[in-house]
Inverse folding.
């Protein structure tokens, strides 16, 4: 992957300030009591948050067996004649694949699951196709970047591409297939130049329909088209991060100016997708050529979007657009990326470049709320983000966690302490007034 640029880490120096009300020793004693409660709660905490009503920890082996039995039933239901049953099974698998690491279980059943997903994609309705495409992407992430994942991608790539470029298919299904095609190719075909080129070509055939015509006019988008174009563009941008320098130079010449024209799109989300993609392309262009120049016209266009105050646009849309385009403009002009840290467990990763943001956002879209769990335990994501093998925490680290009930007790005590302090301050202010 291309090297990431080092941004300036923005530190939050403004911690929580206590209210100084001249409360004397009694306030210190109160704060001490709260801290003492928190300390004792931490020392007595159970390692497992999930427990029975009697306070006994669950049998992990039994829980694992129950989970696998439910997954087996879901896989069986993928072959059911009822579309409703198949859709429910896909949604269950989607939640399980997002929240758990199931590589060993899935490796033995990957061909069966791939066949079932292919059947849902070919014969299911739009909602079933969209759900099946998402599960396809999650399956590739679960299997990792080895032969098993590549084998599944070989089966699923043709049907994902066919649905995505089919103008008669459901827009939601096409959008989901675009996202899945980008993720599956990124995970499975990084070393296969032919699959990479084919997948990018199919994605280009979708979002380039938003490009201006020969007269320089943007086409009027059809219903749902901006969402589809955004999904295809984001998936394409993810695959761009895998391209060698020679290929990247060609892509910059072909797409950068036309994407700049799309910044005038009537859809705010598509404008944002285009702006983020332009920033990524400029960053990659500067990586391969330090003399790479952006145009003055681009900067002027970005300044307009970063300060857009048109009243005919929704207030939230204007706020979201200005925030994103201020970041894009700041990077284009100063090569300074606004860094962000993602915390998970006792670890964290820095999102310090547009390339890393695109990769992280792609996994977040596929894995949803489970992305932090996968960052913590999935070898594929840990390798991509340079985290090394999953950490094995010793008992002293695990013991530092407290149960939800103990957290509730601490929060209640802290709330009471803050209330008493504030009441004393208010009383003293009232005396002064």
């Amino acid at each position: 992957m291309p090297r990431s640029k080092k941004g300036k880490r923005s530190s939050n120096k403004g911690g929580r300030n206590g209210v100084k009300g001249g409360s004397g020793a009694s306030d210190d004693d109160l704060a001490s009591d709260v801290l003492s409660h928190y300390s004792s709660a931490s020392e007595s905490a159970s390692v497992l948050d999930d427990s029975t009503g009697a306070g006994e920890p669950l049998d992990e082996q039994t829980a694992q067996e129950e989970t696998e039995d439910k997954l087996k039933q879901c896989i069986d239901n993928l072959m059911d004649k009822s579309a409703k049953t198949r859709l429910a099974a896909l949604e269950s698998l989607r939640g399980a694949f997002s929240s758990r690491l199931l590589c060993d279980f899935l490796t033995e059943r990957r061909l069966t699951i791939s066949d079932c997903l292919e059947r849902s994609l070919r014969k299911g309705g739009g909602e079933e196709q969209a759900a099946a495409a998402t599960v396809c992407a999650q399956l590739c992430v679960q299997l990792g970047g080895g032969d098993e994942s590549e084998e599944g991608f070989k089966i699923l790539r043709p049907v994902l591409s066919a649905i995505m470029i089919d103008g008669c298919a459901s827009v939601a299904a096409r959008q989901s297939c675009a996202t899945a095609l980008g993720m599956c190719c990124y995970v499975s075909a990084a070393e296969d130049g032919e699959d990479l080129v084919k997948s990018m070509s199919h994605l280009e055939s979708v979002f380039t329909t938003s490009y201006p015509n020969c007269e320089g006019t943007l086409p009027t988008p059809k219903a749902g088209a901006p969402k589809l174009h955004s999904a295809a563009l984001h998936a394409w941008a993810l695959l761009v991060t895998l391209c060698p320098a020679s290929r990247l130079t060609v892509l910059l010449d072909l797409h950068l100016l036309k994407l700049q024209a799309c910044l005038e799109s009537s859809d705010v989300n598509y404008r944002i997708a285009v702006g983020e993609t332009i920033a990524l392309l400029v960053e990659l262009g500067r990586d391969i050529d330090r003399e790479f120049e952006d145009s003055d016209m681009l900067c002027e266009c970005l300044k307009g979007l970063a300060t857009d105050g048109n009243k005919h646009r929704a207030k939230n849309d204007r706020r979201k657009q200005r925030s994103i385009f201020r970041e894009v403009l700041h990077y284009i002009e100063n090569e300074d990326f606004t860094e962000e840290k993602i915390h998970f467990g006792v670890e964290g990763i820095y999102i310090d470049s547009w390339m890393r943001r695109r990769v992280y956002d792609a996994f977040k879209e596929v894995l949803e709320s489970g992305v932090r769990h996968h960052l913590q335990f999935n070898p594929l994501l840990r390798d991509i983000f340079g985290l090394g093998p999953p950490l094995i925490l010793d008992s002293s680290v695990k013991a530092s966690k407290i149960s939800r009930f103990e957290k509730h007790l601490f929060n209640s005590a802290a709330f009471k302490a803050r209330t008493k302090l504030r009441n004393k301050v208010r009383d003293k202010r009232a005396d002064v007034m």
User: Anything to note?
Assistant: The longest helix spans residues 404-432. Residues 222-336 form one domain. The first strand starts at residue 340 and ends at 344.
